[in-house]
Amino acid sequence: MARIVMKFGGTSVADLDRIHNVARHVKREVDAGHEVAVVVSAMSGKTNELVAWVQGMPKVTGANSPFYDAREYDAIVASGELVTAGLLAIALQSMGIDARSWQGWQIPIKTDNAHGAARILDIEGSEMIRRMGEGQVAVVAGFQGLGPDNRVATLGRGGSDTSAVAIAAAVKADRCDIYTDVDGVYTTDPRIEPKARRLKKIAFEEMLEMASLGAKVLQVRSVELAMVHKVRTFVRSSFEDPDAPGMGDLLNPPGTLICDEEEIVEQEVVTGIAYAKDEAQISLRRVADRPGVSAAIFGPLAESHINVDMIVQNISEDGSKTDMTFTVPSGDMEKALRVLEGAKEQVGFDVIQHETGLVKVSVIGIGMRSHAGVAASAFRALADKGINIKAITTSEIKISILIDGAYAELAVRTLHSVYGLDKK
Ligand code: ADP
Ligand code: ASP
Ligand code: MG
Predict the structure, then answer these.
(1) Entry's Pfam families (predicted)?
(2) 87 vs 370, which has greater pLDDT?
């Protein structure tokens, strides 16, 4: 007997038929004698619809967000998961399984106060564990918890993955299965590159980079939690026949295991390619080249919660003026421009230039630590396709390259093939 947390994403619960199919996956594990907790997302498209409704409301001045009260945003967007949790509990009951739905606050999953992007602080899992011990299946609404203000707080887009891993850690589950619309983690988004290969295993560090650099298959925070709490996490498909051979394999279920790098026998130099759309680049021209300038630029941006990414500073020609270029998510660009205009006097720049519609393509692999020349082959391959590079950043296990959005797919496919990742 094992304890298993099963998470089903939006496309897996998109309609009643799929919810019944999900129930069959759950039944398989229950029939095998395991203790099961399930985490569900909202039906696919539902959260987007709820977000759009909030954005369609009049802007509220004086609220704790520039456009609307973030606590009410959370009250609204958390509702999609409540529906699927209830529906799945009913579907399970109709199969003779003792199941009960749980909203985030009922457990409770306690979070911090950052409405819209809250972090889980603690999960009081004892009642859930007790009931699981009695054979009851807990169906938990993902994406949400209870803030210190006693109000619903959501965990950021894609947050149900994090709910699942956090619950798995809290109930000391033997395994956390993230069921989605692909049958594992691939060398790149299989929707962009059909030659992408499914990975049998991927190291936590690599998955962390893949997720933060745009591969939306897992929310970044869920990977961090899995790494810290050593949760055995698999990414697998909900679309396969729930009763196909091997689906109930306890130790080696089909899919991709996220694990310690020591567990990976054949380590390639490059493991995967990720991309993030909707990047914007901002350049401050002729900035005074003196101590304190970076702080004067990036301090106010940070205070406004704008996530600055790639930063490039030129050498100044005459030792007095330089150019500072950096990227922000496109959605934050207008706000960033306003903040920078407000700080113009302290920073002392001539003009601001900006460009949207850029894409960051990243090459990831822990094998890069011990291999030279990985970056050079990326630059050569992109040059051969006539793709201009606007900015580069590197770390021990990744290279990120900023390019024009029009070349995103070409760049992903080019890099995928250069590093020998294409399906044979
Ligand atoms: P869910 O609704 O189940 O949470 P998501 O849409 O959040 O599913 O994540 C699954 C999607 O992630 C896939 O449909 C796929 O297009 C995308 N994806 C991006 N990069 C990868 C990758 N490297 N491997 C697998 N899927 C990826
Ligand atoms: N429903 C939420 C979203 O679409 C959370 C999730 O699916 O993980 O972002
Ligand atoms: Mg997701």
Answers:
(1) AA_kinase (PF00696), ACT_9 (PF22468)
(2) 87
- In 3D space, the residue among 30, 29, 18 whose CA is nearest the CA of residue 234 turns out to be 29
Ligand 3 centre and the CA of 54: distance in Å? 21
DSSP string, 207-218: HHHHHHTT-TTS
Q: Which ligand is nearest to the CA of 10?
A: 1
Mutate to test the pocket of ligand 2, among 13, 157, 219 (most ligand atoms within 8 A of CB): 157
For 49, the token pair is 């619809």
Q: What pLDDT score was predicted for residue 289?
A: 87
Residue 421 banded pLDDT, cuts 50, 70, 90? very high
What is the bridge-based pairing of β-strands 272-288 and 233-237?
A: unpaired
Both structure tokens of 210: 């893949």
Mean pLDDT of 357-380: 94
Q: What is the pTM of this model?
A: 0.94
| CB-CB neighbours of 327 under 10 Å | 25
Please, what are the domains in the chain?
Answer: 3-262 (3.40.1160.10), 272-418 (3.30.2130.10)
State the ligand closest to the CA atom of 14: 1
What pLDDT is stored for residue 174 in this prediction? 97
